[in-house]
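pipeline/complex-builder :: batch 7 item 3
reading input block
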Amino acid sequence: MAQILSPLPGTFYRASSPDKPPYKADGDAVAVGDVIGLIEVMKSFHEVRSDVAGANVRFVADNEEPVMAGALLAELD
Amino acid sequence: MLKKLLVANRGEIAVRIIRAARDLGIATVAVHSDADATALHVQIADEAVNIGPPAAKKSYLNTEAILKAAEATGADSIHPGYGFLAENAAFSDAVAAKGLTFVGPSGDAIRMMGDKVTARSAAAAAGVPVVPGSAGRVDGIEAARQILIDTGFPVMIKAAAGGGGRGIRIANSLAEFEQAFPQAEAEALAAFGDGGLYMEKVIARARHIEVQVLGDGRDAVHCFERECSLQRRRQKVWEEAPSRALSDRVREELCASAVALARAVGYSGAGTVEYLYDDAADRFYFIEMNTRIQVEHPVTEAITGIDLVAEMLRIAGGEPLRFRQSDLRVKGHAIEVRLNAEDPARDFAPFPGTVGDLRIPGGPGVRFDSMLYPGYQVPPFYDSLLAKLIVHAETREAAITRLVRALDELDIGGMKTTKPLFLALARDADVQAGAVHTRWLEGWLETHSGALAPDPQP
């Protein structure tokens, strides 16, 4: 099982804007370099790219959840 | 007089407002999110109320939670600071509807100045020069051609329903205009469902000059101007008062126009009328009026000796203005720089972290407005402003020398900040000569990023 951790502290978002679908739905496959969400830090937005590949992504962090650097965002098979 | 003030904000401005209130003998209530439970504004207020989770929309933007906190603590007034709910007309109305005093103008005044078209009309009606362009939406290409007589080229075509820089086109000639206008109309309709367009003359190179006003609803005075031309991504980073670029005659006209606008709308509280000043043409143009206290207010306080936040509280408490225009004089020159938790060596990447040792500059002519203390954890959820360093001296040259002295004394341990940017700017010949405009800093950054490595640690 692989994990995707937050590179930064801030607020986690699963979609690029509230009216857009999430970057990844639960169950999707993730390739290395895929954007899986955004972290908002001090009003600036940073893409979270996966550095691991896997199937069946399961998000542990909720949309708009405050996270610390190193927090578990999602797990992959 | 107000008896108990709730401060609906956080960070350095909440600290600033609590200090002013306590100086006047007004009891203070801080509000805070879960992320700010140990923040300085919470520590120094008489009381504190938790108003919700870290996300601003669930706490500092949560009108209901803030009004509940006011009720629970028996506050008679609310100061919104800047940002968050400061220019939210509905919030001002909601505070008043609860029988509380909003420290700032009425909801109607906020609404009028918050809408570009009504603000422009109010300014024009008060005789304030506005940027040549359409008075509102342009009614078709025939009417647009008439407006070109006033604007000349280049001209900006803006989608009425756009915003944040979206839906803007610039035409440099009539040929370009004839092509761009119908395209802009079609694009606006497709993107926003509204094909309405505005037009405005492009002021290619200008300074940002703004006038501080104070009104009590009956009369208004100005507290002279600030120049905030050094901006990055439309964010001011270095502000001064007075502006070196203005002649006495232009200063007088500019400041008088701001007072005329404040009087015309019966303005109450502290406000700022913002202008573009085109040096080459020696013309100034109204941009907007901000109906709140601004980040850079301390430079005005330095040169006038007025405590603007205290005056806001007195006015909100029902006192008339305590000055006539003839009482106000400019003394010396002041500069403020914004120390942000950003790494200038890495394209200003945000740097939320924990403050280690803290060495704060002092001595004559130095002021440091901040919420920092050793061990403070800077939360990632809000803006990056950590501190404002304000220096005041007899002349601009002496103020720049003092700025470097104070920056050298300052040490915010454990953090990356914009301090190296200001040391580099203070040593730049154009900055020293005041030869800058609103797009100067972005050009300078393209060629000077190497100068922004952090100082070697002592």
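note: The radius of gyration of chain B is 22 Å.
queue -> next item
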